[in-house]
Amino acid sequence: MTPDAAPAAPPRPAIVLASGGLDSTTCLAIAKADGYGPVYTMAFDYGQRHRHELAAAERVARHYGVAEHRVVTIDLRQFGRSALTDDALAVPKNRDEAAMAAGVPVTYVPARNTIFLSYALAWAEVLKADDVFVGVNALDYSGYPDCRPEYVAAFQAMARLGTERTNFTVRAPLVHLSKAEIIRLGTGLGIDYGMTHSCYDPIVRGAGSDADVLACGRCDSCLLRKKGFAEAGVPDPTRYA
């Protein structure tokens, strides 16, 4: 007599905010490894100068076979005040760690994570999902105020009060990890970081689908990425200009 099959595990839908970068890709790998499913990814075309990150986000989503990858188009250029959305402002280059820690940099996009998480929360209500993963980090980061654990906890509390998802949880598994620790964790999960894109000011050669996109190697994001791979003792697969 064949024993009865074990009942199927109930679905654990989750949304991962995807930028195509190192941190969000690690979050996606963690969600999959922890048994969440179906997993959805959400990226944003918000007028960023490093728009090539969207191709990386799609590439990563396809690699992990997510249930749906959605790109939301919004215009944050209308507000400006960020080197990522205002061409009149230059992306800082070759800054040392002391300069990065001196204050909120000009690459900060006002209220960006609040806007992104709000869109994810709306989708979570539709999908009846209680978990949204976000790759914020409070150690090796550029001083953004919306990357702190206190912010994550505050958004989660607001979401539970203002929606039907009373168990809504913002999963920020990387918030207390260094970049090197994140890379070691992701490498252990089998991530190919060559799929990812982190540069704020990429060098683009060519056009269209044939464009060759290289990381500048000098913006804060590139420098933190380089430092992370070096400290992790993992070869950096990034193609720098």
List the helices and strands and how they pair.
Blueprint: E1 14-17, H1 22-33, E2 39-45, H2 53-64, E3 68-73, H3 97-100, H4 112-127, E4 131-133, H5 149-162, E5 169-171, H6 179-188, E6 203-205, E7 212-214, H7 220-232
Parallel strand pairs: 1-2, 1-4, 2-3, 4-5
Antiparallel strand pairs: 6-7
Helix pairs in contact: 1-2, 1-6, 6-7
Oligomer: single chain
Structural class: alpha/beta
Shape: globular
* CATH architecture field: 3-Layer(aba) Sandwich
Question: What does the average pLDDT come to?
Answer: 93
Q: What is the fold-level CATH name, i.e. the topology?
A: Rossmann fold
Radius of gyration: 18 Å
Count of extended strands: 7
Strand order of the largest sheet: 3-2-1-4-5
Descriptive overview:
By secondary structure, the protein is α/β, with parallel strands linked by helices. It has one domain: HUPs (Rossmann fold). It is 34% helix and 12% strand. The chain has seven helices and seven strands. A five-stranded parallel β-sheet has the order 3-2-1-4-5, with helices on both faces. It has a two-stranded antiparallel ribbon with strand order 6-7. A hairpin with a 6-residue loop joins β6 and β7. α1 packs parallel to α2 (53-64), α1 packs across α6 (179-188) and α6 (179-188) packs across α7. The longest helix is centred in the middle third of the chain and has 16 residues, at 112-127. The model has no long low-confidence stretch (mean pLDDT 93).
